[in-house]
Amino acid sequence: MKRFILLLMVPAIIIAIVALLFAPYIYVEIFPYRYSFPRVSDAPVELNKGEIHDDYFAVEYLGDDTYAIGEPRYYQANYSYLIIGDNRALLFDAGSGTRDIWGVIERLTDLPVTILPSHLHFDHFAGIKASDRLALVDLPSTRSRIRNDLFRPGRYEFLGMFDGLKASSIPVAEWIAPDALIELGGRSVQLIFAPGHTPSSVMIYDQKGTRIFTGDFIYPTMLYAFLPGANVSDYRKTTKRLLTELPSDTRLWTGHCCRRGGGFAAPWLTMADVADLDRAFELIDAGELEPSGLFPRRYRVNDQMDIGLALSLR
Questions:
Q1: 46, part of any domain
Q2: Dihedral-angle region of residue 37 (phi above 0 means left; psi in -120 to 50 means alpha; beta otherwise)
Q3: Is there a single domain that holds both residue 131 and residue 17?
Q4: Who contacts 192 (Cβ-Cβ below 8 Å, separation ≥6)?
Q5: Which residues contact 206 (CB under 8 A, 6 or more apart)?
Q6: Containing domain of residue 17, as a range?
Q7: pLDDT in tens, 87-114
Q8: pLDDT digits (tens, 9 = 90+) for 223-240
Q9: Is residue 314 in a domain?
Q10: Residues 190, 207: Cα–Cα separation, whole Å
Q11: Is the pTM of this model over 0.90?
Q12: Of 185, 228, 184, 193, which is closest to residue 118 (Cα–Cα)?
């Protein structure tokens, strides 16, 4: 009998280990079948700051010719940022593509606009069209996606299965080296290579405005550090880099809304939140922070943030 039980346990253990290793991929593949809800809400939006454009986009002026452009009716409530110089503008992320963001952009500037995605997930990349001027961080992983002079993110880079989307193939107009300066004319910003949420994630640092645009690396609510491509070791390294290199008064403008108790407005955090994230990683590594849930394992960082992690074999 013991031998029979042992024979049953061995395949069960193997299946459990395989499920553990592939849990992020299983999660994204079954998500559309597990959850059914409207992608765009019909409810009217009440903004705490900014104005509604085209009955869909929230536009908020951040000063210094910089705008936050959100999608408050879209279920992920994501934000893009338009940074305007004298010669051209930079659009950091282009939204989910649920509505055409260009109607808003053209009201805010008549300069040429370059789009730089913070990462390749569909809710930040799907708003980019083949006719747009696309810039990408110059990495072997992004260069490897070029086919016939067109860039197309991979299935688990784009994650379009969440919304039933397929990635488009788009020409790359500009390759930007990690940590290089981007000249906009009378204004320059820096691309900060920031892996963790994804292997090719980037941020934009605006030294003059003492602010950084973080994409999905950090934002209020729950950080997704459990999807395919997420890497906790990289997350920790990038967190420590931000704490080492950025002034303590830097304002973080993030990729998803909203601050708890703050109403609908462009989402922001502070360097104290980055320090809290760093401390949370230390406590998690020491086994001193208790999670909730099995997948993702959700850890409280502070009153604004949780972080979701995959299970670990170690």
A1: yes
A2: beta
A3: no
A4: 179, 202, 203, 204, 205, 212
A5: 64, 66, 83, 189, 212, 213
A6: 1-36
A7: 999 999 999 999 999 999 999 999 999 9
A8: 999 999 999 999 999 999
A9: no
A10: 8
A11: yes
A12: 193
